[in-house]
Write a structure and sequence with these properties.
474 residues; alpha/beta; 5-stranded mixed β-sheet; 4-stranded parallel β-sheet; 16 helices; binds zinc ion
């Protein structure tokens, strides 16, 4: 069976055939960095990770891009409150987000483009849309004319009957009833200028709309047509609908070939959302003693298109499941090896498990089926080992490598083996890093260096990246 995905665009399971054999371009909507994501967002990020890992597991060379939205209404508002520029305000959230990805064992994207780093591409895209008659400027704002794009609504299948020509919506986040011309560019206000959120453009100083950012960055990184665009289901309308309109109206080409959307996570049967104020972050859970491996396991345990109830009991069950895998891994490592051992069922069990695992994931990334294959393998291999005094090196390697190979996609054993994070120490390091950042911002390099040395003495290696500072223990 070939790899198949459920494509939101066609509402059908489709065989996955990338544009270029052997290569995949994949774009996923990342966070808006005005706070740390809540646990519900991490379901989406872990889904991206399983998709990314599985494509690589299948032998594809994947170029994976995840954007960071570092300019929007909320960021501007909170930067004003904090008396900082948007760059200063978002830096710790970007750093925190990347650290959280590491905590959960999410493999880094090939690039994390930031909206503010791609303004020229966004301006060029708006210019192209104006030239082609799909956009118009009004008092320094620029709107997309949805009546100029007959395919509008093809992804979300939204009812367009209520649309009245020329009605406009300026907010980045609007409801289904607001099917109207949407803002590509917003004229600068004084507040925007004060926090460094205003850029020059032919139709006036301003800033890009949220939807425009993803169109411009994805096409800049992956080309005008690419294979996979992923996101949470809440992004289908308006965000992804608008991305399609902007991109296809500008290029005249299909924008994305496969649209994959993950469902919400439910927390105690209530939809988690920031607007409900029901915010649980990854850090709160880790601080309360829940292992990242158990959190990751629960986040990936349901099929990505099914709702997932995230519960503390579920975390306890996940912990038990991981314990079983670790015990099994330990048992394999401790199994006696003898060159003259008779043939064992281990290679067959391993081959069957890998085939079932792959069949499950080929079927629209059916993780529950893949997990069933894994745990059946553990149970049967344990039973076989009960009957054997020793096995050959080759047979044992077949079992160990099957386990490792399955974990290449699931990514839970690797983080379960990592030492438990020391929350207090981590908080201290974060505090010192923030002080160092502040010292650097005020060009007090002597203090910044002293803090770096202080951290080094405590065994912390600091790595400065374009996305902020990261740290690890030496
Ligand atoms: Zn996006």
């Amino acid at each position: 069976m070939a790899l198949r995905f459920y494509n939101t665009l066609t509402r059908a399971l489709e065989e996955f055939r990338p544009l270029e054999p052997g290569r995949v371009g994949m774009y996923a909507c990342g966070p808006t960095v005005y706070q740390l994501p809540h646990i519900g967002n991490y379901r989406t990020f872990v889904f991206y990770d399983v998709l990314h890992r599985y494509l690589e597991w299948k032998g594809y060379q994947v170029r994976f891009i995840m954007n960071l939205t570092d300019v929007d209404d909320r960021i501007i508002e909170r930067s004003l409150d904090a008396g900082s520029s948007i760059d200063e305000f978002t830096a710790p959230f970007i750093r925190g987000f990347l650290e959280d990805l590491d905590t959960l064992g999410v493999r880094r994207a090939d690039a994390f483009p930031r909206a503010t780093g791609h303004i020229p591409e966004m301006v060029a895209l708006v210019e192209r849309l104006i030239q082609r008659g799909h956009a118009y400027a009004v008092d320094g704002d620029v709107y997309f004319d949805i009546s100029s794009f007959p395919d509008y609504g093809k992804l979300s299948r939204i009812d367009l009957s209520a649309v009245r020509r020329g009605e406009r919506v300026a907010s980045d986040r609007y409801e289904k009833e607001d099917v109207r011309d949407f803002a590509l560019w917003k004229a600068a206000r004084d507040e925007d200028r004060r926090v460094g959120a205003a850029w020059n453009a032919p139709w006036g100083e301003g800033r890009p709309g949220w939807h425009l950012e993803c169109s411009a960055m994805s096409m800049a990184e992956l080309g005008e047509t690419f294979d996979i665009h992923a996101g949470g289901e809440d992004l289908i309308f308006p965000h992804h609908e608008d991305e399609i309109a902007q991109s296809e109206a500008a290029t005249g080409k299909p924008f994305v070939r496969y649209w994959l959307h993950s469902r919400f996570l439910l927390l105690d049967a209530e939809k988690m959302s920031k607007s409900l104020g029901n915010v649980i972050t990854l850090r709160t859970l880790v601080e309360q003693g829940y292992e990242p491996a158990a959190i990751r396991f629960q986040l990936l345990s349901a099929h990505y298109r099914k709702e997932l109830d995230f519960t503390l009991e579920g975390l306890t069950e996940a912990r038990t499941a991981i314990r079983r895998l670790l015990d099994f891994d330990d048992r394999l490592a401790a199994t006696a090896v003898r060159d003259d051992a008779p043939p064992s069922p281990l290679p067959d069990l391993a081959a069957t498990a890998l085939a079932d695992f792959e069949r499950g994931l080929d079927d629209d990334l059916n993780v529950p089926a893949a997990l069933a294959a894994l745990f059946t393998f553990v149970r049967r291999t344990n039973a076989a080992l009960d009957e054997l005094a020793a096995v050959s090196r080759a047979d044992l390697d077949a079992a160990s490598s099957a386990l490792a190979r399955m974990d290449d996609v699931l990514g839970v054993l690797a983080i379960a083996r990592a030492p438990a994070p020391d929350a207090e120490f981590a908080a201290w390091v974060e505090d010192r890093l923030a002080a160092r950042q502040q010292a650097r911002a005020s060009r007090d390099f002597a203090t910044a260096d002293a803090i770096r040395q202080e951290l080094a003495a405590a065994g912390v290696v600091v790595e400065d990246t374009p996305h902020g500072s990261r740290w690890k223990r030496a």
